[in-house]
Specification:
Number of strands: 6
Helix content: 25-40%
Strand content: 5-15%
Largest sheet: 6 strands, antiparallel
Structural class: alpha+beta
Distance between the termini: 57 Å
Shape: globular
Radius of gyration: 19 Å
Order of helices and strands: HHHEEEEEHE
Length: 193
């Protein structure tokens, strides 16, 4: 009995000490998008339903940048400054981009995901893989007529992950992406890093 308990404790200790990276990178990417989703809506809950784009800088948001083509890292930094999203959560494990060493050092080159520029109460698509376009550092309308995953960006090849406002994260190919965009109430406006 005691020998079995010691064996079990030894195995638990060994498992805890090992840094096994067995979680698929697609799952890791999905979990990171879920973290962004959670933090975004936590921010909105603490700001009377207003997202970072509707909240002034003096209250932790980025409202003053909403009408400009400010870099995507401004929008993500609003979540990093107050909540548990870490710089590593903004980089897909399949991306050649590397995480920023700190929130203060965050730049577009450390971000794998686009983020919604729509008001919090109208968001349907919150965030997703940046390989949705060959463009970078700009605003984009995710129109069904032009949406297509760009395999040359790496990430997930001809597929990508999208975080929806309902909390789901879906891995979609271009055909499914276009179909999902057609089902939305409005064309999402996003900022690409």
């Amino acid at each position: 009995m005691i020998g079995g308990a010691l064996l079990l404790l030894t195995l638990i200790g060994l498992a805890a000490g090992c840094k096994l990276h067995v979680i698929d990178t697609t799952v890791q990417c999905s979990l990171r998008l879920r973290a962004i989703h959670g933090e975004y809506f936590q921010f909105a809950a603490e700001n009377s339903g207003a997202g970072p784009l509707e909240t002034p800088i003096s209250h932790g948001g980025v409202m003053e940048f909403a009408s400009t083509n400010a870099p995507a890292h401004y929008y993500f930094r609003a979540l990093l400054n107050r909540y548990g999203v870490r710089p590593e959560d903004l980089t897909c494990p399949n991306d050649s981009r590397r995480p920023a060493p700190s929130a203060q050092a965050l730049a577009n080159s450390n971000i794998s995901y686009f983020i919604s520029l729509d008001p919090a109460n109208r968001i349907e698509v919150l965030a997703g893989d940046r390989n949705i376009s060959t463009l970078s550092g700009t605003n984009l309308l995710l129109s069904p007529a032009t949406a297509a995953w760009q395999p040359s960006f790496g990430l997930h090849g001809r597929e990508g992950n999208i975080a929806f406002a309902d909390g789901s994260v879906k891995k979609l190919n271009t055909t499914n992406l276009v179909a999902r965009l057609k089902s939305l109430q409005a064309i999402p406006k996003v900022m690409l890093p």
